[in-house]
Fold each of these.
Amino acid sequence: FSSVRDIKPVFYPGREDLVGRQMARAENYCHFPMFLFGVLALFALMLLAFTLLDRFAALWVSSFYAFYPHILELSRWVKEDIVLLFFVALALYYLWKGLNADHGSRSEFFSFILASLFVGLAQATKWYAGMFFVFVGFVLIAKHWDSFKSVTYKLLSLADKSFHRESSQHQKHFLIVGILSIVTFITAVLAFFQFSLKNFFDTLNAYR
């Protein structure tokens, strides 16, 4: 948890992992974020469970994660995995909300943006989490499949230009949500690297 300048060019949080004697001797300010995100991750998982499942199944899943040994272990380690779990759970929650929201609604717009934000934060926490953004893109395209096809045909100059006004509005909404989701994801990732592509690629090369 040193400042960014102290660990340049390696911007990854939680590196190097504190294990063994180093973990036991770590100051409280090192352990506190792990405890905090452990509790937050549990609430995020409960929120996701009660959204997707019936009450009994959600309680079972919540209890399983609350007392699962590996989750408790991650909450004790000074490591970034429990932070990743929190961001991914929230990303999936808002992605589900966006999928089930009405087409063109404010709820759909903000849900996809928030899903992209939390995936970006997860990506900045651990590299492989970026794959979830591909999933966000697939969900958005699947929901707006007709708009996606129309926009693609337009870009390839294969479509008839006589679109209905209603269809054009749907296409515009799809493009706005898609572009802003990409911008939000990139911004969330680069915020951890002082908005510097050099810092980003230096860190990427350090962990190859």
Amino acid sequence: GRHGRWKGLLEVASARPSGPVTPWSGRARAIRILAGIVALGAVLALVGVIVAHVSSSDSGESAAREPVTSRATDFAVAYNTYDVAKLASYQSRLKDLMTPAYDKQFVQVTNAVFKALKDKKQRSGDAKVLAVAIDEIDKDSADALVAVDASITNTDNAASVLRHFRWKVSFTKTKGEWRVSNFESVAAVNASAGTPTPSASATNGGK
């Protein structure tokens, strides 16, 4: 029968007696084994390079997304934390999170909305970001999907009412910082059909 013997990690079959064993035949076998080892080493090295490249790419993408995720979280919490009696403070907190053009729109809208809600004494707080996913990103723009909950109180609801918001938030990099340039609701499930909370515009963003 044919028996095998282990040489390192390679199993080398014992040669059948088929003639005299010469120095050349021994060298030939050694060359073939060495060639196999070299070929295997080359394959493993290539796999290592590919894995390292993929890991490096994933790490780079994660690093690029992290500032956008952080800014989306900050914006969602700030946007859903307000008291209609403190309009100036609210607008000031949001100002540095938005582009100048979008902040201008935001100020115009919240001036009108907060005035309408003043008698309702509406407040929003306990904002909790449930998830942030980066939909698209390049060197100077990004889109994020944000899920956030907040509790609303007003004269119609003395007990807080939990509301659920799902947004698509667009960002533009301005002077090295990610700032909100637009946002819109992609789904919203309200616990109550109470008074709406401030919206950046009729179609762009909102609650």
Amino acid sequence: SSSDTDTDLTGLELDRTRYGFLQRYTSKGGTGLRLGYERSEVTNRVSGNKDATSASDRKDITDLLRVGLNRAFDDHSITFDANINNVDIDDSRDRNRTSFSMLRHTYRPGPALSSEDMLSYNLNDVRQGNSQFENGLYQLNSYAFWRPQANRDLRVNASLRALMRNNDTESSSTTAYSITPVLGATYQWGPRWVFNGGVGGTGIDTE
């Protein structure tokens, strides 16, 4: 933990207090776990009023929670990370909350084949007075590569990207979707010729 006092260029006195922990654990099987928490309190006050409370003083309280996991087994590798950050203003309804999570899976059985998938989620939740706004984004990214052992001159790759975004307010709600698949191939014909080809598209929808 730490605590300090400083004065910025506008003459405001800043009191900062921070404390938290970060714990890591690795099992005998190689699974890694992480857990962390941190709280930060920042008070903006007019210089000279350190021992008094003024109506112009503002205190921001930030809570940050982090978790993580990583594991590898056989030809697979899995990673998960997530964090939630919440900022509250003391004696106020105002709040800003953001969260992020990501799950990644990798599969590599050999030099001829590999694939990777990543799923993520972002959320931003803002409340100011009597108004509230929430924005969320889901995203999936997948990629695969194949180079057959029987024909090393041929390489095939495929990818997929899918998105879902939602915007919510007290008076409206909208959701947008998009998906983009791509398939491509490369063929090395002799030392001087290389042929490339691909096909893809994008679909978009809203509601």
